[in-house]
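User: I'm writing a short report section on ligand binding and want a predicted complex to refer to. Could you take this sequence and fe (ii) ion and write out the structure as tokens? A short remark afterwards would be nice.
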Amino acid sequence: MATIRVRNTGEQISDEAKVRQFLADQNVYYDHWDTDQLPADLRGRFVLSDDEKQQVLDAFQSDIESLAKARGYVKWDVISLSDATPNLEDLLKKFEQVHTHTEDEVRAIVAGSGIFVIKSQQVGYFDVVLEAGDVISVPENNPHFFTLTDERKVVAIRLFIDPSGWVAHPYADPEFQQA
Ligand SMILES: [Fe+2]
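Assistant: Sure. The structure tokens for the complex follow:
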């Protein structure tokens, strides 16, 4: 279950109904998938071969297809990050820059955890701390970035309307609030 942290005020929201309402108010799509679908031999694994990534997609196929049908995604893939990822530090530095995309950014966390830092017009920047099963979509053109939690590992499914639309446009923001 996702939790929210509002950077300006320090407010934390962990009650499920309130988290869902907060994200809906920010036009951030949120859902939760059953991670028991993940094959037992892939649990706790953060370095995956192409074949194993396909097994992840196969395991969540019905959730992926219904989300794709509802929201227009045509392609999907799996990414994994952990301390075994070459240059993880450099990658995280690159990630932690506020940016936008011309399409929404969808992530379904299937293992590990991650954080989306998202700008709200109403409350400023807020963190959405995601755990396995959480599915989120940051709206198109909404400033944000993604990073890892202290456990520094994640496996996530990404879905795209048009992969070429998923280019990061840097968003220099004097209002950005460091955590
Ligand atoms: Fe992004």
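A remark for your report: The chain has a mean pLDDT of 95. The pocket of fe (ii) ion is lined by residues 99, 101, 105, 144, 168 (CB under 6 Å).
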